[in-house]
Design goal:
By secondary structure, this protein is of the alpha+beta class. It contains ten helices and 14 strands.
Length: 492
């Protein structure tokens, strides 16, 4: 079952089934308990009425029993000898004994009419003998006020067997005989009511489950309709490869609307990334074409006319081609998410080393470095050396006479400032020069070197090291590039 709608409908039906079954069982139990308690109360009333008559020594045959067919009565003594049963009672269970015949135990039970003369029993005058103790016995008849004992059982009255709720009430006759009166109340009403409720629940449950499942199916279908629209549009975008299309955004403010909005934002980022990648490939192809074409021409001319071969030019084109390939490879690694190293690098020493090498090779205008101490940052030494080299290349390329470099600590960060005395960078172009393959028309050309990747690489590397690279105006009107990186302590 792969459909979300089907799973939701089935889940709702199962939850409702469990809830209804649990609630139904509770309702049935409460109903059964209430009706059983009601029957018990009815049985207790009958038992106390009979016990009151027995306590007053009313002869058993003269007991006033109403509805003997409905309320069976059994009277026993403490030894469970049957003293009396209501008329028509043929069998009984759930009381102290299942006997229904008085004196059925085989011996004459206490309290029989023959004992009345000795005990001052039912209706006796107590005789003339004795010490007057019989006069006290006439005041001993009483019914226990304790809570009666209840039990469930069955009884057969005139051939009809039914279930009853029995109440057992203790009493003492005036003759001092303890007796127990068992009276029953029918449980037919309880059984009928419980059965009716159970039947109603079982009959209505399938219909209710059908309604719940249907409503859940329809509600889920309506709720997922925008998702289906998003899916179709994404499938169309995938088929057409047109990243300019967007999925429909519903007017609701729910999770589906957030999903559509996030999907469109993802498509926007993806479109920009693909466009940037396409421009990067086009620009890279264009940049590679020139040195490759120049090198090919020189080699072809040298092959045809060896005396005309421009070896220095071929070497320069090869070096330029090699540098461009290295820049493209580094950008590819950065775009792939290559992480910076986590080793301590002395940025001051790195700058002095780069400046010393340029002075030894006599490359470009003179570069001066302010005295610095040990200023460590965390990162990749090779990538940070590339950043410093690119900044120095850019400054020497546009400087008139000199380039000044300073390295200093600033509030837990390490700042590297490279300042030249050239024409500077117009404010409108200060952000654009960090884009790939961007060269300002009046200051940069292929002949002056660079393909417009140096500053882009420098900013990407600075960003991946948790730092920034910005450009501003120097004291003499030239450009000042500021590289800010977290110090080793802060980075750690």
């Amino acid at each position: 079952m792969r459909s979300v709608r089907a799973r939701a409908a089935l889940g709702a039906a199962l939850v409702v089934t469990v809830a209804l079954v649990a609630a139904g069982l509770v309702v049935l139990q409460v109903l059964r308990d209430n009706l059983t308690d009601r029957a018990g109360l009815e049985a207790e009333v009958v038992a106390r009425e009979v016990a009151g008559q027995v306590a007053l020594d009313v002869p058993y045959e003269d007991l006033d029993l109403s509805d003997e067919d409905v309320h069976p009565v059994q009277v026993t003594d403490e030894e469970e000898h049957v003293l009396f049963v209501s008329e028509g009672l043929e069998a009984i269970s759930g009381t102290a004994t299942s006997d229904v015949a008085p004196g059925s135990s085989g011996s004459e039970p206490a309290g029989s009419p023959d004992d009345d003369a000795d005990r001052g029993g039912h209706g006796g005058d107590g005789g003339d003998g004795g010490d007057g103790g019989d006069g006290d016995d006439t005041d001993r008849g009483e019914v226990s006020s304790d809570e009666p004992d209840f039990s469930n059982g069955s009884a057969t009255v005139e051939g009809d067997t039914a279930d009853f709720r029995f109440a057992a009430v203790e009493a003492v006759t005036r003759a001092g005989l303890p007796v127990i009166v068992h009276a029953g109340a029918p449980l037919a009403a309880e059984q009928e009511a419980v059965g009716s409720v159970r039947t109603t629940m079982l009959t209505g449950l399938p219909f209710l489950l059908f309604v719940v499942a249907g409503v859940t199916w329809l509600v889920t279908r309506r709720a997922l309709r925008p998702v289906e629209g998003i899916r179709r549009e994404l499938a169309a975008i995938t088929a057409s490869e047109d990243l300019g299309r967007r999925v429909p955004e519903p007017d609701s403010r729910d999770e589906i609307a957030w999903l559509a909005r996030t999907t469109n934002e993802t498509l926007t980022v993806l479109e920009a990334s693909v466009d940037r990648q396409r421009r990067f490939v086009a620009d890279a192809s264009h940049e590679l074409r020139s040195p490759i074409a120049s090198l090919r021409i020189q080699l072809e001319v040298g092959d045809a006319h060896p005396e005309l071969l421009d070896v220095p030019g071929a070497v320069a084109d090869t070096v330029r081609l090699q540098a461009l390939a290295a820049d493209l490879l580094l950008l590819a690694r950065l775009d792939a998410g290559e992480r910076a190293g986590r080793t301590a690098v002395d940025l001051g020493a790195l700058v002095r080393e780069a400046v010393s090498k340029r002075a030894a090779d006599r490359i470009g205008p003179e570069v001066s470095v302010a005295d610095t101490g040990a200023l460590d940052v965390m990162g990749s030494r090779g990538q940070l050396a590339r950043v410093v080299g690119n900044l120095l290349d850019n400054a020497q390329r546009h400087a008139e006479c000199s380039v000044a470099v300073s390295v200093r600590a600033d509030r837990g960060d390490v700042l590297v400032e490279v300042t030249d005395d050239g024409a500077g960078v117009p404010e409108a172009e200060q952000d654009r020069i960090f884009e790939r393959f961007v060269r300002l028309d009046d200051a940069r050309s292929r002949d002056d070197g660079g393909a417009g990747l140096g500053l882009a690489i420098a900013r990407d590397v600075a960003s991946r090291h948790g730092g920034t690279l910005t450009v501003g105006e120097g004291p003499g009107g030239g450009a000042r590039f500021t590289l800010r990186l977290p110090g080793a302590a802060a980075a750690g």
